[in-house]
Amino acid sequence: MVERGETSSTGGSDGTQDPFPSAKKITKRPKYSRFTQQELPACKPILTPGWVITALILVGVIFIPIGLASLFASQRVVEIVDRYDEDCIPPSFKDRALGFIQDDNTDKTCIRKLTVPKLMKSPIYVYYQLSNFYQNHRRYVKSRSDKQLRSRKDESKTTNCEPEAFAGDKQPIVPCGLIAWSLFNDTYKFSVTNQPLAVNKRNIAWDSDREHKFGSDVYPKNFQNGRLIGGAKLNSSIPLNEQEDLIVWMRTAALPTFRKLYGRIEVDLEAGKEITVMIQNNYNTYDFGGKKHLVLSTTSWLGGKNDFLGAAYLAVGGICLFLAVAFILVYVLKPRPLGDPSYLSWNRNPAGHLN
Amino acid sequence: MTRGQRRKLRLSKLYSFSCIRLHGEERHAQIGQRGYSRIVYCNDPDNPAAARLNYKGNHVSTTKYTVANFVPKSLFEQFRRVANIYFLIVACVSFSPLAPFTALSFVVPLVLVIGVTIAKEAVEDCQRREQDIEANNRKVEVYSGNGTFHRTRWKNLRVGNVVKVYKDEYFPADLLLLSSSYEDGICYVDTMNLDGETNLKLRQSLDVTSSLRNERCLQVFTAVIKCEDPNDNLYSFVGNLHYNGKEYPLSPQQILLRDSKLKNTDYIYGVVIFTGHDAKVMQNATHPRSKRSKIEKRMDKIIYILFSSLIFISFVGSFFFGIETRRDLVDKKYRRWYLRLDDTTVFYDPTRASLSAFFHFLTALMLYGYLIPISLYVSIEIVKVLQSVFINQDRHMYYEATDKTARARTSNLNEELGQVHMILSDKTGTLTCNSMEFVKCSIAGIAYGQGETEVERALARKDWSSEANEISIERIDSHGNAVHSGKPIGHSVKGFNFRDERIMNGTWVNESYPDLIRKFFEVLAICHTVIPDVIRETGDIYYEAESQDEAAFVIAARELGFEFFKRVQTSISLRELDYERGEKIERNYELLHVLEFSSSRKRMSVIVRSKADLLLLCKGADSAMFERLSKDGRLFEHATRDHITKYSQAGLRIMVIAYRKIEEEEYELWEDEFLKAKASLSADRDALLDTAADKIERELILLGATAVEDKLQEGVPKCIEKLAQAQIRLWVLTGDKLETAVNIGYACRLLRQGMREIVITLDSPDIEVLEKQGDKEALAKASLESISKQIRRGKSQLTSAKENAMEFGLIIDGKSLNFALTKNLEDMFLDLAINCASVICCRSSPKQKALVTRLVKLKLGKTTLSVGDGANDVSMLQEADIGVGISGVEGMQAVMASDFAIAQFRFLERLLLVHGHWCYRRIAMMICYFFYKNIAFGLTLFWFEAYASFSGQPAYNDWDMSFYNVFFTSLPVIALGVFDQDVSACLCLEYPLLYQEGKQNILFSWSRILGWMANGVGSSIIIFFCTTNVMVEQAFRRDGRVADFQVLGVTMYTCVVWAVNCQMALSINYFTWIQHFFIWSSVAFWYIFLLIYGYISPTISTTAYMVFLEATSPSLLYWLSTLLVVVSTLLPYFSYRAFQTRLQPMPHDLIQRKQRECAETKTSGESSIGTKDKLKHLKEDTEHSES
């Protein structure tokens, strides 16, 4: 018999079978929330002509004053730049600069006279500038051991320092690596009207370097003892964190032309004064055609002399204003094009073409 | 009919007395051979022979991974992506000295990114695992040799075990039904988990085993089953039962499939045939073919482009590095002495410059790897999943009546929804409700039924001007009846919408042919395969019907006084009102044979014995029925034909009802032949059966015809109109008759007034003549010629009408389609079809539907979407780029095969125009932006290299770089991909032309992609050159300090982070607090990171130590250069957009202005102004406001 005692509605517990959806059954109706229905309150920026013109003019109005201020600040900076690498080769060595620089016995002293163009208020920063010197070369950047520099107990950790890791007798070099090895070793002595001009060489490195990266208990060891002498030698009785020239040098530069802080002159220099600089021209840039400059510069609130920022601000501001004008012109001369073909096309041809 | 195919499949397993078995009967012969080699020793799993066969146990595992292989396998899956392989190789190489940065800083983001994806896999797999464990540990009663049943876990079952399954339990494996609590060995099965169909199916055991109903009988029961090997066909089973020395053929009728449920039967006994993964349902569990969107395919191309540019710039870098390195050795002197190249590894050796250049190339590949967005894939995956959540959660796509939400079953096609060119739609159940309502009938030449159908109303609206129509469709005199429409009289019954006082409530006895009317309804009440379901408490009867049409018939018969309430194996019982006595009487009809419906037969008959009469009751399609009428039976033929024409014009489904009396002798003769045919095992058994059936289904007496309405779904015309406005083509592929299809076409505004119809058909006299002659070759030739002629004629019509912008509708029938889809004609056909505004293919088979889909997809190369609800649409859904299943009344097969499931056709509008548009836009923007941000960042590294003699030193700190894709820029992109909206949902719907952006792929066109890339290149140039020029050599602070490597790096990086995030802010159209939060917190996080990272001891932070706090933050130059760079990088895009919205606005630019208006109309409900007017207003508004 096919008499069915119970029906699926009472027998089955699964709702899908149920021909009578009962009221208490949970519906699958999605719960309303602005989030799930994608109706969150939102700001919908539209590029209306008003907004575009306002934005462009606003940028122009903000940028041009900034540009002017930057330019002004840059112009106010007094900077003396003197290239000395060529002139500091005695005429007799003109054709063999390399020989000159690599010969320990030649007199490297070189006198330069610089004229102060404008009043230079202290502090006057003294920089040396190298160009065509790739401190950002991967081999060079890596060639140091931060551990070793930081503490005495890591003296022997000279990974990455090859080939300046160990001295001949397998003693670790401190500080090891190419960067330290090629330390810049030109020196400058300044005098004005035969009065020596003091150069403060303290505090030219970053505090963080002095305090955390270079140890106070780490002393130079086996440095520049090898077959090849790179750059400056270090006083092995001064701990590394006080060797500020080294610390400055070890902060590698990003670009092949760079300046590094040499010291500060902490007196004002009157305009027209002549500064005599006695340069010990030791550093070899002749091999790779690098230039050496001595730079004396004051600073403004923006830093040193560089017109680029101001000019760029002015340019961008100007472009914005120009675009604003162009946009107004477009707006006035060419209102929204009429009869844009895509505009009502479906209306004429509901099915359209397959395109 | 459309679902003929499916009917054939399902009916065969429905009924125990089914006479026509499935194909595969002939395969019985093959048992024992290859493919049919399984041997099951019933009740004797320990048989040594069985042990030799070594069939697997019933343990299942559906997980993708096991604990052991999870790590390698999931990793393998991940690294199948080209980009990931690259990253893997880079990660490996990064441990060598070649690496430009510390290996860890590269590995960590990779691990993070891969880890997120793998974690997702793991979570999904764990869920599957839990399900497996649950299934494996379910309990079932197994017969043990000693005559008792004991409970055991599913996984312990073995092939040959006899199990006892109780009511509402799932079958643990594929079983052979031995017997049930019913004497005749039947049981009811719910196959919801197999095919999603909710109606109960009937299974019946072989007679010989139906008596095995207790433990004692089982003790002596041994048998051997020889059957097919495991396969995935749910609807077929071939096997023999060797029992008591005899051989009994088995059919799907005796098979209980795993994962289906026993219903309404107290218990059954069964023998395990297929265990575990051999079970048919497990064999079926193949992973669906994964579809990929066009955007994703293009994205791959872009990745390749990026790879090529990566290789290119690496090559350039290496080339220059090689030259530079070689130049280091001049006259045996090392130029750059400070590099000590005299004592170097091969990587920098000037004496081996080309080799070092080669190694440098590898380094460069790593260094510039930031061009390839590492987090792109995982970001896109996250975004798509979230987008799918939004689709699933959309309340506007929730259908109350069936309690169904939209479901994105695959998330990787979301954006494809925004690019659909062509929709191929099924009709029944998709455009229409597939809830059949009995509305009209014609009995003995008299038309009954006064309701007005939707189509009639639509046709009444249709204003026929002087337009020449190729097929004349006369207007139906519906006005007279219009009064009755829409007013429900009395209680309304689902499936029944018939109003006619003449025959309702028993008044039919007063009509001129009461006897015929009675016969008519008897046929409706008896000739079917419906199972009645009586609810005991209320006495109400529900009908479990295979097809909605049949249910409608049975319900109609019931409402008119012929209540079908019981069916057993051999009889059908009706409750009729005996008008002479005025009381309800029960009448039994002895059921002798059922001659089943099939799509080729197009009819179904039953042979019953009522009292002394032998009757053949028959119903079928008009084409099959009229030719079978006897001379005397044609009394009402003319009138009935007239009515049928009218009905089909009104969009109704027609069934012709006839009967005949059979003489005893004739019956006996026929039965002999029929049973012989039935018993035959030869290959042409089906044909024999057909011939036999054909012999008895003759000399019929026409009773009349029924007309069932398949109502249009709610909102279909509006939806179709909207889709048309969005310039999405809609083709309807239906199995319906031409007239029905055309009329539904009008009703749903697919065919519009003023459209010219091109009809391609083979219903011409000369073809019919050839058909009758049976010369197949000549017929094919003539048909082909006729079709090509018709297509050509259609094309010439098109060209001639081009000037006056005439629209065309193409209507083609299934037979013609067969020829039109042949190699020679398909191009021509397609050309004609795509130039017509609408296309309707009627009388098309599932295969044809798939073929048309493929034709469109391949030949046009456009995105096609097919939408359907039934099993007959499955192939079409799988063939199309996107398959949308309607989760309607026709079971779940279509939904299972689909990529998206919606409850109603009208939701397609929202799915495409809103979600499709948004998703397309979001993904397109997101990918473009991804490339932008990575190019902008990656190229700054390259420019820097140019100033570092290409030595491979990165400009930034290692960890800064590695967090770029993971922390500083990733969240805003995801927010963009998930939340951005160019215009609100209601505007999307109001202005369907917005859809063009996706359809024409404007937002992801090559010009746009390259534009974004160029923008990235531009940004990188601006960032690099501005910062380097600002910070060159002079002091960058008041205290005279100069910028070193780290300061420049941090400044540049700050600019990059600001620039890409502001660029994002600029390109977002929709700012919720989420976007604000993500964008600005990404920027803020960079500073926080700088602070924290810089604060950690220099052992860890190395070069980044205190850079921000000590060096850059007090520097005004740093902040000013950031401002300068950010504004300059934004300026090109900003001005481009400003001028572009002005001069060449994209659709969304126009419509965005209407944001506020939409919010208002939304609150006030549907706007009544037509879209056309709206657009006009919009246009005027903008003109006004700006002049």
TrEMBL record, chain A:
This is ALA-interacting subunit. Residues 144-157 have a biased composition (Basic and acidic residues). It comes from Rhodamnia argentea. Residues 1-24, 144-164 are annotated as: Disordered. The chain crosses the membrane at residues 51-73, 311-333. Its main location: membrane. Pfam families: CDC50. It is found in: Membrane. Belongs to the CDC50/LEM3 family. Keywords: Membrane, Transmembrane, Transmembrane helix. It comes from the Eukaryota. InterPro entries: CDC50/LEM3_fam (IPR005045).
UniProtKB/TrEMBL annotation, chain B:
One of its GO terms (cellular component) is plasma membrane. Residues 1156-1187 are annotated as: Disordered. SUPFAM superfamilies: Calcium ATPase, transduction domain A, Calcium ATPase, transmembrane domain M, HAD-like, Metal cation-transporting ATPase, ATP-binding domain N. CDD domains: P-type_ATPase_APLT_Dnf-like. ATP binds at residues 426-428, 550, 597, 619, 653, 734-736, 843, 849, 872-873. Its EC number is 7.6.2.1. Residues 895-1145 form the P-type ATPase C-terminal domain. The chain crosses the membrane at residues 82-100, 106-123, 302-323, 357-378, 923-944, 964-989, 1009-1030, 1050-1070, 1077-1096, 1116-1136. It comes from the Eukaryota. One of its GO terms (biological process) is phospholipid translocation. Belongs to the cation transport ATPase (P-type) (TC 3.A.3) family. Type IV subfamily. This is Phospholipid-transporting ATPase. It comes from Rhodamnia argentea. The gene is LOC115751108.
